[in-house]
Amino acid sequence: MNRKMVTLLIISLFLGCVGEEKREKTISIAGSTTVQPISDRMAEAFMKKYDINVTVQGGGSGTGIKMVGEGTVDIGASSREIKEEEKGKYDLNIYPIAIDGLAIIVHPSNKIENLTVKQLRDIFSGKITNWKELGGEDKEIVLVIRAEGSGTRAFFEERVMGNVAVSRRALQKPSNGSVKASVSGNESAIGYIGAGYVDKYVKAVKIEGVYPSPENIRSGKYILSRELYYVTKEESEEVKLFLDFVLSDEGQKIVEEAGFIRIS
């Protein structure tokens, strides 16, 4: 092997190492399944623009906050406000990244079009057990809720249930997708999901006469509206770059493409 070939080999190996080093830069995100569609799209666009790998997983808001607080992931995703005890325990940085509405969903065949908050509370507490009590068909109501640790569940219980407990008959599901699947497959079911998850397979009902459209959620007319968050603890330069991207005009357009509302 001549000197020129040796030199080229060394350069190639060096460049390969540099490229590998770049690819080793990673950002990990975990938490709310409501926020996950945003995170997935944001990660895809960010990785096309920067040589930094972004991994996204669910687990629920409480899990995401705990993981970022303990240093297991770089960014936690939450669909509820961060609790004071969590702020004190983990010393978190909190970034609102989008606005969402909590949609109350039923099977598309269900004739119910509108519910009041009181009716919702009575349904999910077990006080109202049959759709005929609300002007619907004579069918027993099947309750579908999120599991413990879900930010969506925490928001629902705070805004709708207050101090009233949810019925023990309710079926608990680990994600927005699984709640939607349960309701779409059962004509008697009712559940709640992030408005960005609503599609032709379920029907979102009006609450107090207001439909969870992007316009009504943005204006605050729809009462079950909420902010979505990213939380961090120690921020690397890569994480700072990602957060800047999320909050930029380009990032907020991705928020809208995912079916949510830009924070601004």
Describe the model:
The protein is α/β, with parallel strands linked by helices and 264 residues long. The chain has 2 domains: 3-100 and 227-262, 3-Layer(aba) Sandwich (D-Maltodextrin-Binding Protein, domain 2), CATH 3.40.190; 101-219, Periplasmic binding protein-like II (D-Maltodextrin-Binding Protein, domain 2), CATH 3.40.190.10. The protein has 10 helices and 12 strands. The strands form 2 sheets. Strands 1, 2, 3, 4, 6, 7, 8, 9, 11 and 12 form a 10-stranded mixed beta sheet that branches. Strands 5-10 form a two-stranded parallel ribbon. Helix 9 packs across helix 10 (249-257). The termini are far apart.
The figure for the number of domains is: 2
**CATH architectural name of the largest domain:** 3-Layer(aba) Sandwich
- Sheet-strand content, in percent, reads 15-25%
Mean pLDDT: 91
What's the CATH H-level superfamily name of the largest domain?
A: Periplasmic binding protein-like II
What is the N-to-C order of secondary-structure elements (H for helix, E for strand)? Answer: HEHEHEHEEHEHEHEEEHEHHE
Rounded radius of gyration (Å): 22 Å
Distance between the termini: 62 Å
Give me the CATH fold name of the largest domain: D-Maltodextrin-Binding Protein, domain 2
Mind telling me the CATH class of the largest domain? Alpha Beta
Q: Give me the secondary-structure category.
A: alpha/beta
| Number of extended strands | 12
Q: Helical amount among residues, as a percent range?
A: 40-55%
